[in-house]
Queue: 4 jobs
Job 1
Amino acid sequence: PARVRVLRGNLPGMRSGRVPGRGGGGGGGGETAALLCGLLLLLGAADAQGIRRPSSYKTLRGDAPLVIAKGGFSGVFPDSSYYAFSFALLASAPDTSLWCDVQLTKDGVGICLRDINMSNCTNAAQVYPVKNKKEAKYVIDGVPKTGYFSLDFTLSEIQTTLSLTQGIYSRTERFDTMYSILSVTDFQSNVKPPSVWLNVQRDIFYKQHGLNMRSYIVSILKSVPVKYISSPELGFLKSISKRAGRRTKLVFRFPDNFLSDPSTNQTYSSLSKNLTFIKTIASGIMVPKIYIWPVTNDNYLQPPTSFVQDAHSAGLEIYASDFANDRIIPYNYSYDPLQEYLSFISDGGFSVDGVLTDYPITASEAIGCFADLNASKADHGKPLIISHNGASGDYPDCTDLAYQNAIKDGADVIDCALQVTKDGVLICMSSINLLDTTNVQMTPFSSRTSVVPEIRDTPGIFTFNLTWNDISDSSLKPKISSPLSTYYLVRNPRYTNTGKFVKFSDFLEYGKDQDLSGIMITIENAAFMAKSLGFDVLESLTTALNDAGYNNQTTKEVMIQSTDSAVLVKLKQQKAKYKLVYTLQPGIGDASASSLADVKEFAEAVVVDRSSFFAQSVHFIINQTSLLTDLQSAGLTVYAQVFRNEFVSQPWDFFGDETVEINNYAQSLNVDGLITDFPKTVRRYKRNSCTGLGNDVPSYMGNVTVGGLAQLLKNQAAPQAQPPSVAPMPKLDAPSVQRPPFPTVAPKNAPSGAAPPPGSSPSAAHTTAVSTCILLVLACATLLL
């Protein structure tokens, strides 16, 4: 692509001597340029066709909203680094504007730096000892701040001694101290952005300390083609309005608080009600997202304000700020950053004129490929959308709400993890242990704990400890899953304990009456049920399917999934008419020919955990394993699991954007189905308007280069910053596939010493022993106290 030419030759953003073994001013420019291009060349070979957009938007002039890359692609690389700026050009819409926060040095030169306090975005604190004379204290926005400030350093000091670091702790620090700080003129001459946006945050502060921001900005307008200048100080914009000329748009920026504009002594709240006055100075305004979509104290959206319409009525363009994939966004968006963009550009009945983001690839996707999609009838083509415990990303697992919304959200297949109650009723529940999926510990059933070594070593309250009437009791409620709660990410708190438990017979009715391609039933612990409970889950399953009419129809495919090959072998021997699916253990890297031959004896499809597709080190993809090729070469259908929207669930290589990850599995890996907690995210992906464009697919909707970021670190970072080496992943072999034959079902009237009858606790004596032991421990603890 023509725009890649800016990366050829030396990379002035890479300081000489930063990388051990590298000398010279460019730091290995040609090689590094090829690596950086390689990250995105596989993201799509063609952006010559430009961005694909709907015919019109409800922006001020009907143009597509502008993508504004804050400090470049600062979600990955340090803000305002050469790589951040260059990568943003490759991964975004062709007309993306690159945002530079302008700070002034001691000698009055403008630099691109995200914060006036360099402690937050450079290695100044490491270069200069604590309490060094370079450390200073200033009052910033009315608050005393201590640190290292740009106005205390000359440009030469900054560029020869300091390096950029990542200022957001949730992001990788492995690119820290690799890049020097760019002056505004270096930024323009080296990066050559198609559109430059300069943000001037503190003109008055610099003026109070003997530096003139206005003079600097006016001086560079002759050599730097600046398209946008923004500032929260209206007086500054007014002072440069006559010098800026028609080619530069002035944008008044509202901060995320309601302080006063020091240049007018008016509160931002009062200025927001006087947009016609702002229009006399500026052509646009920029506001935080909450000005447009207010948020409640418990992080849910309120109805939108009229701010966008008011700005347009005043003749002002309006830009929204504060977008980032790794922010905690309102729960209404289900942790999906792309969905949030859509609410600002199409789904809300209005459109902002641009968005300021740390992840320009996601904004480009939203604007170019997902706005105003036709919500037509779902096709059931590849990849299949298979729910994981229903729409469990938004509702408690396997409840009526989870299934109803999975169907509404566009799942092709809904799933049921089959369990049995004390009185032999089949139910759908994601875990056999009620402690995992319900509030049972808060109910009268909390005393029914037992330890079942065949299932787990710790005490639990299991579905077979309670009857169906117990489980459907009003005091027992479902509990929403939080698989990433260690990161303090919880799901849809307002619905934590909502929904009703579902019997298997009711689940089968859901599957029959809806626009689905089929159902998937997961069976685990079947051997335990047969030996210890005297319950034949396979026979009960077959009977239920027959009673529901699934044995004599062809419109709905029935898939039966298990990690236990003996279960699938037994069903195969019974000549079941259903599709048998074998679930591989996580972390398998490849498969032997003998193991694949064994799998093919009893299954025609496999479920593979996402951890098996790529070898990873500290969340960087290192390489792709051979497992997928092995499975596909054997003629097995491959379903990948489990896809989640939360940004911490994806490797760094997918940029905290679940759509990027889904796109890679669908287009590059070509898997047959995606098992997901969020069916609506995958359904929206399948409706996008870009992936069917062939050679015209825009770069931001292509495939990420496998191991591209890790390779970049390997070539440029110091050894201590590189991802640690990883051991080879284990291989699937025949012994790991083979299981003992499915056991004979224990008779229900078993004599003393045999397996207990169905419905009883499977280890009553053991349970009593455990309870006695717990009482003894409590007594001893009391005596000790």
Job 2
Amino acid sequence: MRAQKININESKLDLDIDWPGVFRHAQAVSKTNPFWNELSGSNPFVHDIAASNRNENNKCLSILKEKPYLFSKLSNNRDSLDSSGDELNIDCLLRETSTRRSGRSKCVSDFLDIVDNQRFNLHKTTPQTTTASDITWLQNDREAYKMAWLSHRQLTRSCLDLEAMSHSPGWAQTQATDIHVVCKLNHEGGSVQLPDSDINVHVPVGHVSPGEFQEVGLKAILNPPLSCNNELSSTVSPLIELTLSNLNTSKAIFLEVKVAAKVKNDPLSQVMSDIVCFFSLNKEGPFKKIENCYIYQDTIQVKLTDLRHVMYAVIAVQANKIQPPATNVWDYVHRTVSVGIYGPKHIHPSFTAVFTVFGHNYIPGKLTICDIKKGGKSMPPVVFQLWGKHTFLLEKPQDLNISLISCDPDFEVKMEDKSKNIKKEELKTGEMVRQQFLFSMLGCKEMHFFVFLVQIKILKSSQVTQFHVTTPEPAPKLGGIINRPKRLQNRKEIKSAPWLLIPTIKYPKFQDKTLSVKTYGVALKTVLRQNKIDYLLEYFKGDTIALLGEDKVKAIGQTKTKEWYVGVLRRKIGLVHCKNIKLISKEQAMDTADSELTTRNLVEQIALPFKKLTYIYSVVLSTVSESVYDWRALAEVLGYSHMSLDDFNEAHINKESERVAHVVKRMKQDCHANKKKRLFLYELIVALLKIDCQGLVARLTQDTVILTSAVKLGKSWRELAEKLARLTKQQIEAYEVPHQGKNGAVALEMMWKPAYDFLYTWAAHYGDGYRDVLQDLHSALDKMKNPVTKQWRELTGTLILVNCMEVLRASAFSKMEDEG
């Protein structure tokens, strides 16, 4: 398959621009452009050019004319600070900011964003480094840009308070938020996926003739058509716009969508309702039902034969009729509702957070908010960023009460915004439902990120769903050089957080019961290994193996990398080769006694890798103390239920984080006193899983895997860097420079430091995608000349852990609550 995306350029910045030539051209244009004076009056950067045209001797020019290669120099300069030299080139290599613009069409704020992300060391300069005067000049230009440009272009902003912005500018431009992808395929066909979604188009081989091409476009329209939402029908996907450039085709194409509903298993629901696809050539309809559909659990595949240049499709649950006791189509399905919390790119002393409910499981990373008001006046549209998301089961349309509670005493939610309601009639429409919450800072303290709690209560019911959201950082300051913290003490997501006071948090009660398994596999052959391999199951032909989900794991076996399912057999969890089993449903399984497992055994087994992973105690302690909000809950699962407030000294009384830290330290001391039987990190992970802190466990897992991998690799990290990020020899050397000894080389025992710096930076570009980090790292290690994963199987164990979290939460906790 050959596929290339349209409008997607390389992230490498092409900054070799003849800036003096550009300005000479601008001066020539100014003589023939009658609007030149007005234009230069509204743009401080153009004003420099206009001024120079009037006075050839004027030396107060824009930084781009004064230093035409400044940004090229910045892109080649490397951070030579003590703990890392990775921020600059690796960011330009891996980051995909401004991917829709070529290097020659970057706007000034793009360049400023690039500079803003760099860290300089002014004491170690090379012939191509910036001077302190360059930095001062840049600050002056940025101040001019903020004061003049933003005042005339109100859409170019990331906050709602321009006065606050004068203290902490956001530097984020409003941009289109419709996700739209276009791919060009040849006669070999291929697949096109809408980014960050479960919406795919599959184009078969021979769809177009050899030598011809097909451009396939996908777009998600968040609000589905109202005509498809009524008592007998409810949409469970966004409206999908599909475009084709070539209609000279010989084969149909397939649309595949994962939906936010599943028909219940009872006979009435199975007979009375179905998941269908509605199709139209117009965005507004009319829509007709397509018959060529294949449904498997929560995924539908639709065969599209009547191809046009522009087509629209939406997935819905449709009922033949409503038969009592059912009142609408929702009564026939298990329906999940997705919510997203959106806010500005950077927080400010006063900002708005937007709670958004979607009728489908596609939550975009950015959202245009058009109904923001300030002082009774409507504000221009603003693009907000996704801060956090959550899904929960909603059996029928019901009135919801939404509350946002600040977990930091330095911030509060405006009194009239603390609690808001969403009517069930709004949910029935299938459209987005938004509620705005205004946050403000108390006093004149220094700005910092913080955590707030989102509570969703179903009115007339005791059901409560809640989850935590962490705000982004305040806007970067314009002045000064920021020293990068030592990597082994801090990371971007693990900072010295402010005091978190959350007295109302209640962690769910862990229930030790048999796992609820929906899918099984029957072994097609016997697999017994002479040399036992950790985390790989052994089985006899005909054994029934319980599968903990249908997601596949890629890992090396005896010699080759294969795809595996996570399974349970004879009370042991491990991987089973996908090709060695036949999938069957729970109803088809004859004897499942050997594949049963309790939730307690599951937790104890999936945490086993942490017995051998390397960690830094101070980092673990600070991360846990800042992320667990109830010391009693943690103490109870650790076996310290007898502890009371009398066990804390005065320094620990007021702060919950200090109490949590005291409990962790107590456990560490007890484990140290009994090293042969107790392991600190293993027991801590087991405890966190038992209070459903899965987000925290995922974070600790990624941290410890990165550190352990760096230690295991040693000097082999260079080979891994080439495979993962295609680093050049010069880029690899730049990572090692901060750690070189007096002889100009990195000592073998210190080689883990540049390896850690690289892996940390590489993983940071995945954001919250910890599963992808672990899987991609595992795959890259498997492909090395001498794979460390053949002997070091703990990384395989962590893949099993993250793939078992969903089934653990579903079986061990009665309520659906998000990670602490």
Job 3
Amino acid sequence: MKKTPKMDSSLRLCFVAIAFGFVFIMNGKLSSGTTPHEADPPQASNLAFSPEAAPPDTSAMDDDSDINYEPVPPFVPEFPVFIFYLGERKHDDPNLVTQSHLEILKSVLGSEEEANKSMVYSYHHGFSGFAAKLKPAEAEKLKKHPEVIILLENRKLGLQTTRTWDYLGQFSTPTSSEGLLHETNMGSGAIIGVIDSGIWSESGAFDDDGYGPIPKQWKGQCVSGDQFSPVDCNKKLIGAKYYIDGLNADLETSINSTTEYLSPRDRNGHGTQVSSTVAGSFVSNVTLPGLSSGSIMRGGAPKAHIAMYKTCWDVEGGMCSVADVWKAFDEAIHDGVDILSVSIGGSALKSLDVEIDIAIPALHAVNKGIPVVSPAGNGGSRYSSVINISPWILTVAATTLDRSFPTLITLENNKTFLGQSLYTGPEISFTDLICTADHSNLDQITKGKVIMHFSMGPTPPMTPDIVQKNGGIGLIDVRSPSDSRVECPANFPCIYVDLEVGSELYTYTQTTSSLKIKISPYKTIFGERVASKVAKSSARGPSSFSPAILKPDIAAPGVTLLTPRIPTDEDTSEFAYSGTSMATPVIAGIVALLKISHPNWSPAAIKSALVTTAMKTDPYGERLTVDGGNYKEADAFDYGGGLVNLEKATDPGLVYDMDINDYIHYLCSQALYTDKKVSALTGNITSKCPSSCSSILDLNVPSITIPDLKTNVTVTRSVTNVGPVKSVYKPVIETPLGFKVVVSPKKLKFNKRRNKVAFKVRVSTGSHRVNTAFYFGSLTWSDGLHNVTIPISLRTRFIDNLFL
């Protein structure tokens, strides 16, 4: 009997990794190499290799598992910052509003001097409230003041982080004479406020060549600070402010000019990327490996004006405080912005209270006609990870583009494999490939070779810097396609392949005495053969707090976008690929165009137009799928209405409109608002909560989501005609599996006297007899020209509180 040769220990680890990979994928789970927090970090794209994506440095840690490391307790300031929300302003004069805030503080602190010392911000433009440094006992005492509606702690928030417009059908060339971009003169006259990490004003994306005068309604300004002055603004960048007092008051060591620019200047890079994506000017002849010569980069509304409100600072990858963000909202409303793009948010795992983060100031902005666009968050692909869930916020999911970066791996027998990489160095001629997971003898086996490593199973990660340090000349990293990549040194090949390719390569290492491979620089391919997916990092619905309100609302490209980056000592290249935060400004730029095209539309009407005309497929007709573990077709909890279709959105036919009364309905139903809170929020003492018999299911959102169906439910919606005056619409129902859905009336008729019509949808459990998961369908109203589609999401709950 032939004796089986012993397997090398490093190869044995590779084999174990493969086995683990198969088991994990067969069970639909991510490998153990995936970090507990699955989201891409700010600025990191699916292919960009950012420092934040790298695993923690364990080189200084002792291997002795018996050592217990005491966690460092978090810093708690003696006088933390608390935020007090008082509702709508009672005075038009901001000075009188501020004085009323000082009087409230004085009632607890005893003197105006102490009140002034305590005050961090007075919110006196867009709404009424203040932030103050107080002892917790003093804050609790102030909470009982009759004018205080809400008390908030100053929570920390985080940043949620070219080809895009061609992909969406809004072509990049400035000479195009068709479509929404041309009809709105590329967004000329719109003012887009960006609440983010600042801006690098010297970038070509903020050039103001050919711009007209600054709009007359603009009241903002450009403030001076570290390496920034009013001369850094122009007709493109018309406003730039910064807010840091709220964050600094709660930090053990204050941010200073040695670690950040105490000015609107961007040190993090996130704000510059967001600003250029939403409204960047045309930049010609963009040079980046893999792009064709003469490529053009631009934002969604390239002739719109930008106002930057810097609230996020280069601390722990990008940190913002609620107090600072609220002040930015307060002043942006006053300054005269038309749209707000806010790529920040908190965690989905928070107290179930709508009165937090950006929801309240966003409501005041929306009530004044300013759409607020924010991300669904980077908590994907976890169920119920979506953030920014309030119905007045336009919440954006992220998809990939129809673009890929394949790198060719060639064997000596000319068999080829494709991996993903951004390697731009010279071709690496035929070189030994070894598979190892053993870190103990890398210096002996790695030199001059390409290392293949399985980033799954029980093995520690093999990072590019480790391979390079030990003399290796390349790394083939076998992992789930949806896992985050790590930073790769310049001109060092880091090639990512899936388990199928990795296993085949591994087989060759076992059947060949010395396997040699050739590595070629990457090439860019794009078009219909590259699948579009909902990004792994994009947070998913439903909202755990308010599952009857569908979130996210809409999806847009947010991965591997080309945007300008700030120059650094380490990398002076002007352009880089950015991350999932970019989906938000893509939508904000489109909203700016829609607002110019339809100046009388409310923020809710704009949202409805986007949701009801969105695509369930990519632009080539292929169904969108999801990235992140289990491969499946995307549904409403992944992308809301679907992938944005900006040309259809300009002529939706019908819209599901809402106003402050609808939002009050939501607050009373979901946040337990009282009549007193409602009247303070609106500034109208006659405003009250709707009757107790009104249901949250009847909120006029462009979707129907019923999370707890027991027998049957009838919901009501109304639509407003924004198309031809005389129109007749008929319903087309895609019924969720096993349920029964009936719509009445069978026709919606519109004329000069009747431009708004209500209808009812009766939903029953149909054939279902047990608690189910969510099933998805849709309702479309069609007049033969317009198809106005809303998602339907249904789940039975015959037994309450039974975990499914």
Job 4
Amino acid sequence: MHPPPPAAASAMDFSQNSLFGYMEDLQELTIIERPVRRSLKTPEEIERLTVDEDLSDIERAVYLLSAGQDIQGTSVIANLPYLMRQNPAETLRRVLPKVREVLHVAGVEMQLTAAVSFLTILQEDSVSIHTYAHSFLQVILLHLEHRDAGVSNAWLETLLFVIEVLPKETLRHEILNPLVSKAQLSQTVQSRLVSCKILGKLTNKFDAHIIKREILPLVKSLCQDVEYEVRSCMCRQLENIAQGIGTELTKSVVLPELIELSRDESSSVRLAAFETLVNLLDIFDTDDRSQTILPLVKSFCEKSFKADESILISLSFHLGKLCHGLYGIFTPDQHLRFLEFYKKLCTLGLQQENGHSENQFPSQILEQEKKYISVRKNCAYNFPAMIVFVDPKNFHMELYSTFFCLCHDPEVPVRYTIAICFYEVSKLLNSGVYLIHKELITLLQDESLEVLDALIDHLPEILELMSAGGESSAQDSKFSSLPDLIPALTAAEQRAAASLKWRTHEKLLQKYACLPHVISSDQIYYRFLQRMFTIMMTNNVLPVQKAASRTLCIFLRYNRKQEQRYEVIQKLIEQLGQGKSYWNRLRFLDTCEFIIEIFSKSFFCKYFFLPAIELTHDPVANVRMKLCYLLPKVKSTLKIPADKHLLQQLEMCVRKLLCQEKDKDVLAIVKRTVLELDRMEMSMDAFQKKFYEKDLLDQEKEREELLLLEMEQLEKDKQQNDGRPMSDKTFEKKRRDTKTPTLPKSVSISVPGPSSGTTSTSKEIKKSKLIRSQSFNNQAFHAKYGNLDKCASKSSVGAYTPSVSGLTKTCMISLTDDSFRTRNASSAATSFSPNTPLPSTSRGTSNSVDPKSSGSKDVQPRKATLKSRKSNP
């Protein structure tokens, strides 16, 4: 082995020396730190911080306030509300005097803590108002003028709350009389600012003659103060004062002061005067608005572009309220000017004439751009009010171009605000909502998820207005643009899925539940339903998976084609219920819970009861545990005596879990579930008084499911008779144009199977049935989704059992361990053939059927399937 070259050796020596040097430095630091650590734990300090454990709460508080450190005193003051609740008399007698002494020399933290504690004692009503005023009021007043502005504001907030509850006499002697001297020019600016806020609060507490004689002179004096901060503060209190003194005094006293302040040399005072005038518009009559306020507003708007941009921000924020308050007194020319002023604000900072000066620094340019963004954001906020201002009928001519600019604004806060307002705009436009369809697509495709999140809060209502609004001559042009909606919705979902904002993704999937009311079931089936499956099986966020599962169930609920419904059910059972991943089987149980909530009892028992209770044999404890939690809901779907055989199967599975379960957590849940199942009352085939509302709800669900089958069969008959299929557009139009009549309970509905021939009823009866079945979605699925919300709070109870020929085949139900038959796991990914029947259970059928009638050659016992799962964990 060759020795290293000299250079390398020297480098190595250097690095070693450096290492030893670092170690010596560390040792020196350790030596330096040791005395510091020892000095923090001297016996003297330990003795000083030690408190006798035998002291009571009151004695300990007194001791700490007298001899403790600041942090201990602050702790006692923070604990003052507790002491007042426990022993108010001793706290007031012994602790509060010590608190007064400590606050004279207390720091900022202790002062802030005391202000909060005093307010808490008042809010908790620990003592009477008289006692509180006698004990605490003078302490609050004493510290109002603390040298620290934060402390002064904290005590002022506490005082303003106290003023609300104090009696008039106390207010007059303790607060109003001293206020006369505190508001004089000889006092400090802070004292006069505090006086302004107290005057604004006191006005509502006294009679008119006291206000006129004692308060209004102080108000006038402070409005003419030499300091602009005092004038601005007093101006903002004039709104409260005007509400307390009435209309007449407001016109004679407050309005002249506001007019004078609106011409003040300080921009902050003029801004305060303008905002106060806007807030008081409702008090003034038409003459005052037209002769006094309108000229002031015009002058303010004309000078706003030449003044500071902060005035523009306030003006843009109050413009909607201003136009609403002055509506009706504008001349046509004034109306047009205000509208043009609003349009100019909407594009402020985006046009060439609004460019920056060459003499501005980058920081100034950035600050100015932020102000311009705030102005445009406020304009977006006021857009619904401006629609009212111009009349919705004139939207296309007057405001559409402005709306287009706001929806395409380069800044996210502007687009976010207009997305929030989109629903209000849609409601105002009513039949003209089709005019903003392209802007809806634009916001759905926005690159910012914040904009999408703001838009989807009211997405169901917006889409319903889009699909149902405007039954006018322009209907064809509106619905021709609806296909643009589907790519935008799918792109929005994919963009949300690719981001880390899973809550936005979850919310979007929940809102997709409205789609059956907007687009056809075929469009949902081919563009959205498979995507829900993919999310359920591949997404890693549980709330997102559950949202996709529930939306898929709603899609299935309103699907109009029997073949597609069967395929979805088969996929749910094979890919989720019999999936290799235990996570998929857990999602299957979630789906079963949604099925129970959304569908009728008979639907769940027919298709999902047996696949669900098969999971009692699942090799994964978490799956069995989740099923145990679901079993009470599963049992609630049964009706006696029709479902007696299913009840026996359920009892057998629970009995096996009790006897064979080895996991202690699952066993504990099984035992609790057994007790709950025993306490449950079974629903009967006939209506029961205690379950009457639930039975009616379930009967309505079942009736709607039968109407779906009727609708499909009658459509087939119509196609055979007319020789041409009914387009989805025509069907949707008829569904909207028709109102669903209330079906009488006594009407019996027979549903022809897919293999049965056409009925012998007359064409008129067929036509009435078709109209009724085509329109039931419009009744059952309104904007608030009331039926589905009711389902969430009420368990499903079956009313009667449908007998549908050709739709179901019974499967063999045995009481042995190996009785559950299912498809092989290898066929889970295959597509379901419409000719292959689902494993189902029909009410009122016999218990034993030839196993060959299942039509499946690849059935295996459940035990074999479980073994294959164990080999593939």
